[in-house]
Amino acid sequence: MREICPNGAAVREFTAKMNNMKKLTSQVAVVTGASRGIGAAIAKRLAADGARVVVNYCRTEQAALEVVSAIQALGSEAIAVKADIADHTQIQRLFLTTLEHFGRLDILVNNAGVFEMRPIEQIDAAHYAATFDVNVRGVLFACQEAARHFGSEGGRIINLSSVAARLAMPAGSVHVASKAAVEAITRCLAVELGARGITVNAVAPGATETDIAKWQPPELREQIINATALGRIGKPEDIADVIAFLASDQARWITGKTIGVDGGYQA
Prior knowledge:
By secondary structure, the protein is of the alpha/beta class. 45% of the residues lie in helices and 14% in strands. The longest helix is centred in the middle third of the chain and has 25 residues, at 125-149.
């Protein structure tokens, strides 16, 4: 058996192999809405694969700083950047801050979103604008900024849709339409940006254990579980693992797709 000297070539070889296992080493990822829930899980998962992460938040600074601390504990770098994704100027500032701090951009995860169900009688212009400004316009202009700042080697854009995009949900017309729009943007940009080495995909989670899920009536939760092949509610880490795959070189031949991550949910 070869003796491993603490300062020897064997240790350097082992360290190099371990670094290679971190598929996103040296890459920089922006994750919008990353202070909690699915976004926080995504930020930490990308960091575990070696990425340096920009943790975007809008209101919950302390939660964002806790995600940054968790990433630093993993041995990676992270910063928290406040930006309202509904505001084009703040989106631009988010990406400029990323470049100023890290000097590059490789991955964008459009996770920030709003969710509110309203029957048709209660829908008004403010509700429509609040939903589409974040879920659609914010996604579109964040994609635009990412495409401007990716390097010559290309990049990865991953948008968060929802299983709802393909469901007929009472009181869900505005929300469902916004997520269907995200999937349309994903398909179009995949074709438009493919020649530049930029892949654009979407992930459509099913019901997931987040703050929103806590407000679900027990009977609705049970109904969802019964309609899910794997017999449980999803966890943020279930979604983050798929996004980490799409961000990696292993997904280099996938673009323009929406991947359902819903445990086999059948409405």
